[in-house]
Give the backbone structure.
Amino acid sequence: MLRPATAADFPFIRALAGRAENAPFITDEDEAALAAYLADPSVRLLIWQPQGQPAGYALFCQVGEPSGAVELRRLALAQTGKGAGQVFLRTLVDYGFGTLGAARVWLDASSENPRAMKTYDRAGFTQEGRLRHHWYRPALGRVVDLILYGMLRDEWESLEPLPAQA
């Protein structure tokens, strides 16, 4: 369901990041920046394709850090509002802990993105902090608060397994 991204996936990734509804929350990086991620051993740029076609992408950073903390820096779905968000996020969390061996997976959300915050809460993440007036968002023309979320390995291990069809 998850596979490493390639340069052929850059148009898909950029199309998702460049959508008007995503612009306030996701940074659209050019091909050179995306290529740098592919070359960096501490990063995993992944494509989610549950039905054989790309349906989302994610970017993990800080892979291999001595602390065991792995950042889920970016994630986006091609179609939202169809109920796939929880399965997508759980697949990513399972990858972070199961495949990457993380002791902790963390991510952040704009305080102006209630959909993401609700999704992270429902997935079992704990809100760990708020960086006030921290993140300038060009699409909004202002600085927003950044909400920090984290999940520890033992919290992940206590989650119910994903249904078999996921």
User: Anything to note?
Assistant: The chain has a mean pLDDT of 94. Residues 85-99 form the longest helix (15 residues). The helical segments are 10-17, 31-39, 85-99, 114-122, 153-157.
